[in-house]
Amino acid sequence: YHEYLLLIDAHAAPLEQAAASVKAVASSDELRAESDGARLLINLKRASALDAETVARLRALPGVTGCIALDPILPTRSWGGCSVPFSNAAGLLEYAKQDGRPLWELAARYESVRGNTTEEDIFNKMDRLVGIMEKAVEDGLAGTEYADRILGPQAHLIDAGQRNRTLLPNDLFNNVTKYITAIMEVKSAMGVIVAAPTAGSCGGLPGTLIGVGRTLGLPREEIVKAMLAAGLIGVFIAESATFAAEVAGCQVECGAGSGMAAAGVALMLGGTVAQCLDAASMALQNITGLACDPVANRVEVPCLGKNIMCGFNAVACANMALAGFDKVIPLDETIAAVYDVGLMLPLDLRCTLGGLGKTPASFAIRKRLS
Hints:
The chain has helices spanning 15-25, 52-59, 89-99, 103-115, 119-142, 156-163, 171-188, 204-215, 220-240, 245-248, 254-268, 273-286, 303-323, 331-344, 360-369, and strands at 2-9, 30-35, 39-46, 64-70.
């Protein structure tokens, strides 16, 4: 929102009267008012900015001692009266029966309603995000330098292994490995990445979709469409669970990225809405209970390997869904189960100091880097 904070002397007007005066001057999507006895604080939220004349009228209201305007930070605006067409997988499936469009278009539809904008604008926003992801791949492959980290550059080793014929001859899996590693290395070198869905899991989703898209020779716009589809799975996870490993372990970071990527890969291969959701459900089922146990409190090890593993999991589950495998548990129920398991994980396995994080090697690395 565009937000306006009005500080008002409580002696000038009662709280309700002051709020009514503010409403008379400026409409809002949301208005909150509170008092500490001596002062009133009114928070006005709007989808669009107020003009200078209206702000001046607010400042001139009785008792106003301060008015602060705050511009939105996030690129997508909130707005009053928003009613999204669906908020979970079951709702999406029902909506898709009437709409009939592929998952990426339904994702654009959801985001356009949520952000009060056009589907074209949503596609262009995702196109820019994919551009950032692709640049992270290229920057990582070019090599990164940063002293305060555990792992040095390794993405280039995949190409070397392929040239020397020391790796399994599988271009898809080797490209996915290389791209995920490149993005993770840019992250560790404090470069620009997209937290998709988090910084610790920033490589799995984009590395997989870009790797699959390029290996198959697909147009770049197909990667953008796949990312939109993946994002919609992320919406469902955010709505019913969390992306925080501190709350529910790595299953909601790398694991969530894997479920999102599975839907995106399935879409790339022509999957229906139901097949994309099934792919996501199976991918999430496969990572239930995944702990978060970073070595030396750095988001590098075993984070890199988990990102790569979840990329392969996504590809496998996309194939399984497209082949007609039975997902057994619907996506919404899978998300709820993953969250439930996460809350039962010991605190030591939720991004603190358990598992690999408390090994002698981890403590030695921590001492060396501190």
